[in-house]
Structure prediction request, 682 residues.
Amino acid sequence: MKDNGLGADVVSEGELRKCLMAGFSPSDIVFAGVGKKEEEIEFAIKKNIFCFNVENEEELSIIEKFGRKYRKKINVNLRLNLNIDVDTHHYIKTAKSENKFGIDIEDAEKILNMKFDFVNIKGFHFHLGSQIKEVTPYLKGIEIVKNFCEKNNFSPEIIDIGGGFGIPYTYEDKIMLIEEFGEKITDAIKDFKINLLIIEPGRFIVGNSGVLISKVLYVKKKKTKNFIIVDAGMNDLIRPSLYGSYHLIYPAYLKNEKKLKFDIVGPICETGDYLGKDREFPSNIKRGDYIVVMSAGAYGFSMSSNYNTRLRPPEVLIDKNKIKLIRKREKYSTLFNLEKI
Amino acid sequence: MKDNGLGADVVSEGELRKCLMAGFSPSDIVFAGVGKKEEEIEFAIKKNIFCFNVENEEELSIIEKFGRKYRKKINVNLRLNLNIDVDTHHYIKTAKSENKFGIDIEDAEKILNMKFDFVNIKGFHFHLGSQIKEVTPYLKGIEIVKNFCEKNNFSPEIIDIGGGFGIPYTYEDKIMLIEEFGEKITDAIKDFKINLLIIEPGRFIVGNSGVLISKVLYVKKKKTKNFIIVDAGMNDLIRPSLYGSYHLIYPAYLKNEKKLKFDIVGPICETGDYLGKDREFPSNIKRGDYIVVMSAGAYGFSMSSNYNTRLRPPEVLIDKNKIKLIRKREKYSTLFNLEKI
Prediction:
């Protein structure tokens, strides 16, 4: 991503450290997030990141404080809560007024009239949610920001349009074309005299590039239902349990066999531990076979846990014809390392 | 727990290792779980654990294989799926026939008639679900097992009654008295000529003994809603997001102030990241104050993740008047330790 000219949007000191380790320039990093800690803000200022997307007035006063301490003008965008509803899971809608995110328009007006010595308000950020599949909500957002700027006679240098683009999880998923998105957004922002447009494509880049591979432990055929019990569980991929998400799942080796419906479940002691329900699979699938859970590149490993005292799997990157281990398999020694009995 | 004579019910090699590290005798350990790996079964047999709660026929053949390899008779209980519905969250019901768990009664009959050289079927296990608040479903379970034993002329040596006892999460929660449970169960099993009754109280022991303490980062009062943004999130305690669970939440220092309703939310970039909704809190709660999330002792830290590249908090044990750090706070170095760029 870095080699292709992208910057990074981080929401914690951990993510910021990761980006710096990966070689991103601090001047290509934006710090967003509704709950930035003082020490995180100070760390980011010391590292000279490009700007903060600010979520409330208190945060501005903390940034002002550290700007004064380090004698630096700090760039910020105000994250506006535009009260826009979008068609996505209610857990990942972020722009309704009753959500925790952003500054309501009236409060933003107040902030624009405040005086800061070390805070430089460059423009605005809005974020509508994740897994958004069409351009219309973004256009609506730009329109609201435009009216807001006109009303307040404020000319932003930066507009940061947030909200991860949707990716297809099924063959039926209709997703906007990225070219269409580009054209329509370019057209919509042409009245702004901005220097910089930031776009946050979210899971669009990594979501479909990752898969979770798991081994079949048991096949259980019952009167009421059939189960394929695999060695990956909700601790490895929590999306199905947490959001009711659908992931396509295939046998690693396709066979032209008679199909049967199975629930594909993990080894964890909860009925909520499943990867897919009522999936057609070859009826002769057996212990030792492998299954592939598609589109596990986003919100997969990053949300994984050690629930049931399970070790997390390794992460492997396939880069053209090179296969690289990018995260080692966990060991019990590292798992218990921080514990004291 | 060990010092008070309890044994341990484990569902993974990790949990088994943890119990051995804590000093439990292998002869006090039962291995349950719907997806035991071959290497886990072999490890447990080498460690001479007391018995396995077996979930299907394939698992029996693996146990037989390792029994033969190590020339040992291995104790097992058959985990029966009794098709009993209980009044708990659908994710933690475990005894309906359409759940992945256990052996259906008809299949268990078949297994009782099979011949094993290294498997010793000692009795039966059933597990009804977690957070069960009354004794009736257990009595129903015992009744079904009794009929099953009579019909098959099988006299079990062990009955293992699973299903975590419910704990109160609110003041209104009506929970059975443990004494009443004891009396009724003792009465119900008196017709069995068993040597050993195993009871799995689940979260009953630890659930209410743990709290999650978190610091207030921001207080956000909006037209539509008020928010207390704290530094603990769904990565630290996922129960509210995952199960819609209710946890009581208090300010660490009680103040007799005018109350206001707040959503108590974490710093993670999801609307699903909340700890409590519409909670009455002192209206003057402010940055730097602490909040206490009650009943976080079970399914709290054990389900925690590093989502948003966040470090997990330390765990502290208060043992009468001694305060002991039992798990150190995570560091970025340990978090990135297994990664390679």
